[in-house]
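Contributing new records

If you add data, match the layout below exactly. Sequence lines come first and carry their own label; structure lines follow with theirs. Keep one chain per record. Anything else will be rejected by the validation script.
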Amino acid sequence: MSGRLMIVGLGPGATGQVTPEAAAAVAEAELLFGYKPYLDRLTLGPGQRRQPSDNREELSRAEAALAAAAAGRRACLVSGGDPGVFAMAAAVCEAVERGPDAWRALDIAVLPGVTAMLAVAARVGAPLGHDFCAISLSDNLKPWPLVERRLTAAAGAGFVIALYNPISRARPWQLGRAFERLAAVLPASTPVVFGRAAGRLDERIAIRRLAEADPALADMATCIIVGSPHTRLVDRPDGQPLVYTPRFAAAGADNAAAGGEASA
């Protein structure tokens, strides 16, 4: 069995944010599997072929790539951002666990990429400068009440929160509900960063306070970073403030900043 499966992340969209390692993996592949808009970013050479599939076909896409590798082909499975963050690496692991024993013996490599929250954070300063987490607002693979519980828990624990998959035509109401849930825990002045297509020509960055955070500023190409009670805005002459979360936090500071009692 001489096939190999490379799982790569193409970053948030800008050519300069594709790692050299990922670019080399794409260049050496025979078959490239992925969601069509991601595959369309690639310039293929002679003998290379795209195998596009729909956005909701992650497991079947992973199985097809594994089958190609098991047949001796040099396969590459493409994700946007980082393949291990709400992307295809987990689908491949699931397929290997459920699939034939031969898939466990394959040469499989996961190559990291720049995920959306890192690109958005870099555009505004350092909102991820202290503890943070990432939560997908999509309820396609988990129930919405679980999403709400995680939002409340993360906000109450003082995490900066990166929100992936914030809104879509099928889910137009969930981002507004998420802001309501967060506003029940966080100060109204908490900074919220809307980063659409960070690094691309159609990039749009907006900074709001939580009390003024409007779901209409987001679409599925947007990653949102909701600050903690400690996240700060630093005004600058050009009009766009720096957003950063200090590197330190005192014991009980999150409870105090959110209006609760500091622990002794």
